[in-house]
């Protein structure tokens, strides 16, 4: 974890503010690759993940935060308590949404999901890679970084859609994804229903799973209301009971098992654990549907088990 200071804060759209961070100890913050995110301790014990949306090698980091109306404390704390001069504890960047080499890239953002997509667009433009950028928001006032995109070197590749403006162009994922380059890669980020809509259109159009990339934005709700089950640790043969009102992660921690974790919402993948026997009940938004179908790993922070016992690589 690193100690950083907020050196700039700016309103980017309705209920969306950006925060620029610098290293308290001096020097530059580490460079990162487009699509990377950091964990931020936002107060009251909450840790949240925010995508980096500035210049990867600038030595500072920029994040943008939507004040969510149903905030459990994370975005509300960032908006209400964090000002220029505030100090935060953050992780080093991790990238679970890496750009892959491709002759053409289709970028699709919904709302605050623009943050990793913005960093990708900058990198693709700088490298001369062919790409197009489709950005959806409710209305112009809700579109973050609109002015920045309009003055960018790739402004002519940005297509904007507003679903609350009946006279404006409406985003049609099925039409878009039927007509793109056959070796394109798709990157989509936004609210879960939006990503499901875009990815579903891609699969229906015949896109293979390895060319459809998503970054989950909305966290899952940890499941603690399903049936009880057991976890068997392959290293020792120890069996740990997971009651119906306790997450698998909490049961492991209570039993003294050292499991790395961060978001506790099935988003970040930090606690991802290999499954050797049994059938997980997936509730995460980190694994793709294809990865979930393999049933060889699960996120104990929110997922459970369909079988009486899961044998895990712990």
From TrEMBL:
Domain 2Fe-2S ferredoxin-type as annotated: residue spans: 229-314
Domain FAD-binding FR-type: 1-100
InterPro entries: 2Fe-2S_ferredoxin-like_sf, 2Fe-2S_ferredoxin-type, 2Fe2S_fd_BS, Beta-grasp_dom_sf, FAD-bd_FR_type, FNR_nucleotide-bd, MRET, OxRdtase_FAD/NAD-bd
Entry keywords, A to Z: 2Fe-2S, Flavoprotein, Iron, Iron-sulfur, Metal-binding, Oxidoreductase
Keyword DNA repair: no
PANTHER family reported in the protein's UniProt record: CARNITINE MONOOXYGENASE REDUCTASE SUBUNIT, NADH OXIDOREDUCTASE HCR
Protein known as: Vanillate O-demethylase ferredoxin subunit
